[in-house]
């Protein structure tokens, strides 16, 4: 649906204003694919193999892209190209797709963790992934860093991150944006996770 709305907009307006949509969708799907590969590798080789560790790090690097799309509403404004409601629906469909892929991706890893540790421990690990993703969303939207900068400009990225860790009071926007995203994503993931738990419970009781 999201790609269909995007393609129609391009054909109708002859502009590529929302050119980032296909890329963001691809990154979100990549996160889900990495989660699937990671959990399969862990099942076969355990957590300590270099393949499992590498896939886990890659998954964590790409996970924030699934939720970063929430900030893409910033691109919606009256532009005279098409009805503004159309653009709102287009971005909303992107957010729905991204969140669905991101929540599923995190759940796959969370479920694997749950089979190897206590429920509270596994949930705290999931919350840790959400916290890191929330900080990454801040880095992406406010400082314009991307996942690819981990490879293309790691030095600059490290400087930005360490400066905000060492001097948090000098960057109040870091704390506020990260906290806002963390609370939002935590609530959404809890609802998603709890819904799956209730579904499993109802099936087992039949």
Outline the structure in words:
The relative contact order is 0.11. Helix 2 packs parallel to helix 5 (84-114). The chain is globular. It is built from nine helices and no strands. The model has no long low-confidence stretch (mean pLDDT 92). It is mainly α and 206 residues long. The protein has one domain (2-204). The chain has helices spanning 2-13, 20-45, 50-62, 64-68, 84-114, 119-142, 149-152, 154-166, 172-204.
Task: Please describe the topology of this protein.
Layout: H1 2-13, H2 20-45, H3 50-62, H4 64-68, H5 84-114, H6 119-142, H7 149-152, H8 154-166, H9 172-204
Largest sheet: none
Structural class label: mainly alpha
- Write the element-wise H/E pattern from the N-terminal end onward: HHHHHHHHH
Low-confidence stretches: none
Question: What is the oligomeric state here?
Answer: single chain
Integer average pLDDT: 92
Which percent band covers the strand fraction? under 5%
- The whole-angstrom Rg is 19 Å
Number of domains: 1
Name the shape in a single word.
Answer: globular
Percent helix among the residues?
over 70%
Tally the helices.
Answer: 9
Report, as a whole number of angstroms, the end-to-end distance.
Answer: 35 Å
Count all strands and give the number.
0
Task: Tell me briefly what this model is.
The chain has 206 residues and is mostly helical. It has helices spanning 2-13, 20-45, 50-62, 64-68, 84-114, 119-142, 149-152, 154-166, 172-204.
């Amino acid at each position: 649906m999201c790609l269909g709305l995007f393609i129609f907009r391009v054909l109708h307006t002859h502009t590529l204003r929302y050119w980032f949509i296909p890329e963001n969708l691809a990154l979100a799907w990549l996160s889900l694919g990495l989660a699937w590969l990671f959990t399969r590798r862990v099942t076969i080789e355990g957590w300590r193999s270099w393949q499992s560790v590498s896939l886990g790090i890659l998954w964590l690097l790409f996970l924030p892209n699934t939720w970063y799309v929430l900030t893409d509403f910033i691109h919606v404004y009256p532009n005279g190209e098409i009805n503004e409601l159309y653009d709102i629906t287009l971005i909303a469909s992107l957010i729905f797709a991204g969140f669905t892929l991101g929540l599923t991706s995190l759940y796959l890893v969370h479920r694997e963790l749950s089979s190897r540790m206590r429920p509270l421990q596994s949930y705290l690990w999931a919350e840790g992934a959400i916290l890191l993703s929330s900080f990454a969303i801040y880095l992406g939207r406010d400082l314009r860093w991307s996942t690819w900068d981990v490879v293309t400009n790691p030095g600059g990225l490290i400087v930005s991150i360490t400066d905000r860790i060492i001097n948090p009071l000098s960057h109040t926007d870091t704390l506020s944006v990260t906290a806002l995203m963390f609370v939002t994503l935590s609530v959404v993931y809890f609802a998603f996770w709890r819904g799956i738990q209730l579904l499993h419970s109802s099936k087992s009781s039949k």
